[in-house]
Amino acid sequence: MEAQQYKLSQTLRTHNNIVRSISIQVNELLTCLSDKTAKIFEMKSKQQQELTF
Description:
about 0% helix, four-stranded antiparallel beta sheet, single chain
């Protein structure tokens, strides 16, 4: 069985620290950092929202 190859379609450069976890649901991407911030990205509109805990 050969490994599948994927083509990078988009790069997000909005974090200055290491991303600790991600979650993807339909058209949204949630990223979480160790500095207690998270960002929600709307993939189609390319808008984002930042949250601080």
